[in-house]
Amino acid sequence: MRYQGVLFDLDGTLINSAQDMYIALNLTLTEVAFPIVSYAQVSTWVGNGIDMLVKRGLSGGIEINTELPQVLVDVAIATFKGHYKLLAGQYVNLYPNVVTGLAALSGFSKSVVTNKDRMFTEPLLERLKLTSHFEVLVCGDDGLKKPAAQPLLQACEKMGLKPHEVIMVGDSKSDILAAHNANIDVIALTYGYHQGVNLQEFNPQYLCDDFLDIIPILTQR
Ligand SMILES: O=C(O)COP(=O)(O)O
Ligand SMILES: [Mg+2]
Fold first, then answer.
1. Residue span of the signal peptide, if any (predicted)?
2. Of 52, 142, 149, 164, which cross-links 48 as Cys (Cβ 3.0–4.6 Å)?
3. Residues whose CB is under 5 A from ligand 2 (ion)?
């Protein structure tokens, strides 16, 4: 088998999770007296972790307003986390074929490498009955975030595999760039939160429209 391990992104790859973040963000923005934002906006802002999502919300766009006072940013992030702690998982669902696909990949060593903080990720995986599929979990607050290579390399090390023995599966520019930075092949899934960019431009080795399309890639010899 060409690959022995698979590193999965979480939000936008395994789970459709933007609705909880959309609600938590608008509750936060209302509390700090900033204009609320649309679901469509939030779904293009997911993928760089909570701090970036909140800063994008305060900026009203994907580009961060660098003049936002730090104290406001800190209060908004803490407020978001409070709301998200209560909301995370309420409106989340698995993307089609994820459970079937993970079961079909039972012979592979599998990890989740997410930019989401551990305190939110672990309960979400439990709630969705996904925990047992994965040997390793690397979260956004464990060290550097994607697009850094570090979280992917950390997962490889914990799995006892070399970068050329694994493949990353993700939905965003951050996943593709992190994989390139780590010299790991990458499958980009088109259905997730791709931050308003054309994923093809970032040259993933593979581009798939459905979770099950990753199976023939992984089982090739
Ligand atoms: O919290 C985020 O921004 C997204 O996390 P992800 O890395 O699982 O897509
Ligand atoms: Mg993602």
1. none
2. 52
3. 9, 11-12, 47, 171-172
| Ligand 1 atom nearest 170 alpha carbon | 9
pTM: 0.96
Out of 1.10.150, 2.30.30, 3.30.1150, 1.20.1420, which CATH number does the structure's domain 18-87 have? Answer: 1.10.150
- CATH fold for the domain made of 5-16+93-219: Rossmann fold (3.40.50)
Query: Which CB contacts under 8 angstroms, 24+ apart, belong to 95-102?
Result: 95/13, 95/14, 95/15, 95/16, 95/191, 95/192, 95/211, 96/210, 96/211, 97/210, 97/211, 97/212, 98/14, 98/15, 98/211, 100/212, 101/211, 101/212, 101/214, 101/215, 102/130, 102/133
